[in-house]
Known about the structure:
Layout: E1 2-10, E2 14-21, E3 24-32, H1 42-45, E4 56-65, E5 69-76, E6 84-87, E7 99-102, H2 116-129, E8 133-138
Amino acid sequence: MELVLKRTRFRDTITTGQLYVDGQFFCFTLEDKVREVPNVPVETWKIHGETAIPSGIYEVFLENSPKFGPDTMTLRDVPGFSKIRIHSGNTQDDTEGCIIIGYRVIENGIIVPGTTRPAVTDLKRLVRSSNGCKIKIFN
């Protein structure tokens, strides 16, 4: 299974996008601001808790998280970041570098409440059934 996150709207403090599963639209995404400067070390442009992860291809695996519980979708080997998760939430305050997903998003980038947990549950089921996968993230 292949996940593709296409970042589509870049704002002052947030980034929204679309997540595809095997080429089919799945849901919307919310991340912190993209600050990435290509070919420049992460530590020079990253602001802790306020920066989206770099574009790239990452392995997604399920692990137990003290904050998000069992089988939390986690990205492996993200340069300059640790414990990057795909999880539920509604606003930028919920991101901290992670990827928030939901089935609906409104104009100001807020994931519509009630759509985020079902999206996480559905995506987690797909990841579990595929025995892991990769996610390609690009701007």
